[in-house]
């Protein structure tokens, strides 16, 4: 997401952009994605959507840094784009606030966490505003803009003006968990996963139906895998569940796949073990086998109860079904370290 925001700022105007990440590997991937990625500058030239002169101009205004102070020191606007984990965002925003000028606007790309909650990390919470971009950020025009009760109205106005100047369509929403788009999108993704869990349809069939029936450019599982956004969806769903209740519960199948480490395309998410949808198919088989075992145990239990009712003095016997799946627990994969984007 971050490199797309960088691309939007580079191609939508004449801003100088610095990509900041504490990890050399993440920084190198981000810079390469801006130039050579599927929605990058060179692909835009090849498709006739960008001139060579515009590409050269954009690259001349692009820099990278692994040091917050060096990278954010001259920034007017800082767009934070790290995993959707409150603790990680609070840490990154506090570091950005300390490194950037006191006049710089801090814009978080959170898709679900309330701006008021994130502003607790800042000495001056009036500087923080929410800017929820959509993938691919340099192509999709919508940006959800959310201000907390503590956000300075001038900060919000300045961000909206900047987004409009780079040809984005900012839409104001209330500061609430998930705003609008994440509340809306996350539940249809959850329902798609539950449909796989129940055996109603597989990931490929669901993707085919939403593309050919609803006209979506990407299927649900293509979106989660090809953009490596499964973990972002998962973390947002957990946050919505904790703040909004059971209607946002994480499907058991999604939890199993996430804890097994399948987060999407490894090109974008180096810590991932692979695509989540492929693992969802495997996991569904395990769930069905487990349900069959539970049904067998229930049947045995019913028969045993009938026997005890017919023979009151019959000895009590414990029955352990053969082949019961073990209770395994997997540790969640380590999240990547924060990366911050400034324009």
Brief characterization of the structure:
This protein has helices at residues 2-12, 24-36, 41-46, 52-60, 68-72, 86-99, 115-118, 153-165, 181-197, 203-214, 220-226, 230-244, 252-259, 276-310, and strands spanning 17-21, 62-65, 77-80, 105-108, 128-132, 142-146, 169-173, 339-342. The chain has 343 residues and is an alpha/beta fold.
General description of the model:
Helices cover 49% and strands 10% of the residues. With 343 residues, it is of the alpha/beta class. The protein has two domains: 2-179 and 338-342, 3-Layer(aba) Sandwich (Rossmann fold); 186-312, N-(1-d-carboxylethyl)-l-norvaline Dehydrogenase, domain 2 (Orthogonal Bundle), CATH 1.10.1040. Residues 282-343 have low confidence and may be disordered.
List the helices and strands and how they pair.
Elements: H1 2-12, E1 17-21, H2 24-36, H3 41-46, H4 52-60, E2 62-65, H5 68-72, E3 77-80, H6 86-99, E4 105-108, H7 115-118, E5 128-132, E6 142-146, H8 153-165, E7 169-173, H9 181-197, H10 203-214, H11 220-226, H12 230-244, H13 252-259, H14 276-310, E8 339-342
Parallel strand pairs: 1-2, 3-4, 4-5, 6-7
Antiparallel strand pairs: 1-8, 3-8, 5-6
Helix pairs in contact: 1-2, 9-12, 13-14
Which superfamily, in CATH terms, is the homologous superfamily of the largest domain?
NAD(P)-binding Rossmann-like Domain
What's the overall average pLDDT, rounded?
A: 83
What is the second-level CATH architecture of the largest domain? 3-Layer(aba) Sandwich
Strands side by side in the biggest sheet: 2-1-8-3-4-5-6-7
What percent of the residues sit in helical stretches (DSSP H or I)? 40-55%
Number of domains: 2
SSE series: HEHHHEHEHEHEEHEHHHHHHE
CATH topology of the largest domain: Rossmann fold
* Radius of gyration over C-alpha positions, nearest whole angstrom: 24 Å
Structure summary, number of beta strands: 8
Structural class: alpha/beta
Poorly predicted sequence stretches spanning 5 or more consecutive residues: 282-343
Principal-axis shape: globular
First-last Cα distance: 14 Å
CATH C-level of the largest domain: Alpha Beta
What's the number of helices? 14
- Beta strand %: 5-15%
Q: How would you sum up the major sheet?
A: 8 strands, mixed
